[in-house]
Amino acid sequence: MKKVLLTFLGLLLVSPIFAQFSLEQVLSSAFPTELKASPVKNQIAWVFNQTGSRNIFLAEAPDFKPRKLTNYEGDNGQEINSITFLPNGKSLLFIRGRANNSAGEIPNPAEVQGTVERAIFKIDLDGKNLKKVVNGAYPKVSPNGNTLAYIAGGQIWTLNLDSANISPKKLFHSRGSQGSIRWSPDGNKIAFVSSRGDHNFIGVCDMVTQQIKYIDPGVDGDIDPTWSPDGKSIAFIRVPFTKDALIFGPERASLPWSIRVVDLMTGQAKEIWKAQKGVGSNFFAGGLVADNHLFWTSDNMIIFPYEGDGWHHLYSVSANGGNAKLLTPDKGEVEYAFLSNDKKTVIYNSNMGDIDRRHIWSVTASGTPKQITTGQGIEWSPVQTSDGQLAILRSDAKVPARPSVVATDGKIKDIAPEFIPNDFPSNQLVTPQAVMITATDGMQIPAQLFLPKNHKAGEKHPAAIFFHGGSRRQMLLGFNYGEYYHKAYSLNQYLVSQGYIVLSVNYRSGIGYGMEFREAENYGATGASEYNDVVGAGLFLKSREDIDGAKIGLWGGSYGGYLTALGLAKASDLFAAGVDIHGVHDWNVVVKNFIPNYDANKRAEWAKVAYQSSPMPYINSWKSPVLLIHGDDDRNVPFSETVTIAEALRKNDVYMEQLIFPDEVHSFLLYQNWLSAYKATANFFDKFLKKK
Fold first, then answer.
1. Dihedrals φ, ψ of 674, to 5°?
2. Per the database record, which ranges form the Dipeptidylpeptidase IV N-terminal domain (predicted)?
């Protein structure tokens, strides 16, 4: 017995000992979304997803002690979003359920029997009187709180919230699909966008006469109607139609977009600003997370995002026209933003000065930026209560996302720390370090390196390389602000705890590093230039003394699954195994999923390049084992992409495992499916990267 004990102790001395925690532990913290502030009370509300059980929580000044407002139980896959406080401060609205697919089916991965729907609900702030209001989406409440406007069937409907006996009615009927509902300040009119395929109109509906008027109609894509504070004018963005525009390829320049203002009394329209030709002329619709891309201030200025210097910055221009002023100069980008209660200041988050994190800033139309939060954390989704209190969501390298309030001196107080479980392994997590890798074409690519806690120079480890999806995403030096990537960061931490070295690659075509990086030449379907980053990441790890160069794996979802498959198909000699989660395998299939009228036969040259930029043409050189994971109700990447690649791999006798989730969507709705997918990923890597 003594000999056995001594042998065991000897093994402990020579074998690596890593921080040990379970995937359940690192995925256990409730993830917050939908942070909103009451317009009349010092209250905030948000949604917590607690291992699949989603509910609304409320907190009120001064102590901001959270209390549960709804009481939905179970990992049922039913999302909650679009929290909307009513102006009286007594109730709020929300949507439960996700949109239907092309077949008209609402997501139901938990196989809930009975009615599964996407509906607008109302609940009082004391937690009483929960009731379904109507089936629909995109709720917008009139300024007096009496009328709800919403979208159903591509049309705008209204409902009197003060009467339970009045049925909803269609406000009007128009060709195309209606959206972007915007109430006028006095509540007498609604502005909206009417989408007509190759052009959009800005419309205004008079709530009394129900007459429709399209303002300044043209042949372009008009979006983002924004009312002036006095309700007499509307500003909007005009994006010129481009016939040849597709997706998943660089758009560094196009026909310049512009901002126009229409006087509603006279109908006179005026272009107050236009992007310069070249850099920034293409409108980047996905750059700003806000209710609108235009902020009309109380001093008659319009603040807007623009990439004129190659970075997604804020600018201001007089509503009467003139030269635009750059408000946020520096290398870094503006992301979440809103106009303050007094309509003088835009509060936003940005990675300026801290390129792999996010902090909160503010700026007026004529001022200079003021940084509100600093440090090693990540802050996003700022809102402002009626008395000006700032609330945010935040995370850092070791503590997951949580709601917080910010004092005037910038100090941050967490308001729901109890929703991070006591056994959450913060003390066992590592802090990733920013590194720069060299792609095989010489481009410098930012990444984050995760080293085990007891890391010793020269001690050999297996390695995993992670690629985010999107590709318009950025992994950060901490828990991500997106729920999908918050979970991915958790898995990377778990792999490190199991003895892996992990490299998380912010490959070209992602956000955070400027327009030229995002719109990288020949990226995606136009040449797969990111493949240079994939191989560069592998060579970076292989050159390290602490990596076993024969045990490097790849993993990622969606666009990350695409890069995983591309790496395995073209460089199986470098990558020993991979986990491909709902990845793209033929760009022509996926482009058609987003642009239904795309016809590869009519775009033969483009389609040929797109196919050559996909993993499928290289299937004969694919040798490394792969785990394929996919939900068969995926609305982003068709399930057929996994069906097709599986057939090809089988014909070539490539070792393949599969994990399929019936009725699951792209970003898995069930916590159990995330857990199953990540356990399968870790086990698969252990099988092929830890074997002798």
1. -60, -45
2. 292-393
